[in-house]
Fold this sequence. Notes:
The protein is an alpha/beta fold and 337 residues long.
Amino acid sequence: MDVANEEAIKQFQSLMEEVDEQLKDTFKNMHQGYPIETLVRFLKARDWNVAKAHKMLVDCLKWRIQNEIDLILAKPISPIDLYRAVRDSQLVGLSGYSKEGLPVIAVGVGLSTFDKASVHYYVQSHIQMNEYRDRVILPSATKKHGRHIGTCLKVLDMTGLKLSALSQIKLLSAISTIDDLNYPEKTQTYYIVNVPYVFSACWKVVKPLLQERTRRKVQVLQGCGRDELLNIMDYGSLPHFCRRGGSGSSRHHGNGSADDCFSLDHAFHQELYEYIKQAALRMEPVSLTKQGSVHVDVPEPSLEDAKIAKTIETEFHKLENRNSLANSSNGFKFTSD
């Protein structure tokens, strides 16, 4: 690390010493014993501009306090049938670890429908997985490997991505904004697999809009990405949709639910659900049957992120119009799979 960056960290530390005790308390819960590494994440997110990074972090801490994020792992989505419905329509899971010890988060982008519960449950679920990653998964990996592990890898499966995904852009933008502003620099690399035409068309117009720092993190792989991913993780850590040579599916692959890291029956989701249930019982020892989502304020996206979301929406509309035109004039059916 160069001298300028070290000086930026010192300045940032001095500024954080001046915040009130409530902000310091939630910062302590957030950094999990690694305050410097956390400051560096926010500095990277703001290109090492101390004033901007400081504002970003203070805004994040205020958001955590206002929305009781420190307590969100004690607020289960219940009853279990509702949580299972969320898991079946918001496909995310932990498939294993890279050879360097980084958690591998699998995301079924194309087949997530987000249609089994209100938006608030999906936002709550996403934040809970973020917090569980940061408070349980990453500290455990750090202890196991004897060095700080503060980031993960994400494998995004685009199988099944269709033009109908346009209806999900608002929710996905909200989740992305929460991550960008409150969990910056937590993903080392995004691997995108099983890419259909609809993604390729959008990627061409979105890629130039991304910051260079973000573009470097994104790798679009051939097919299911198995061969490339085996260079950085063992076969057992591959998401189930990457375990074959051809294009795959996020669902119903393998020899049962134990192989499907999206399923509530997978060990990761069982452990997460039990962790939240026990935390809730410690706070309020009553039956976990009441429904009621946590309403989290979604921060306003940056101008850059808003522009990207609008570009994606516009591109989807263009493809949709082409599809309609082709169907009506030529009898040709456009397929995005």
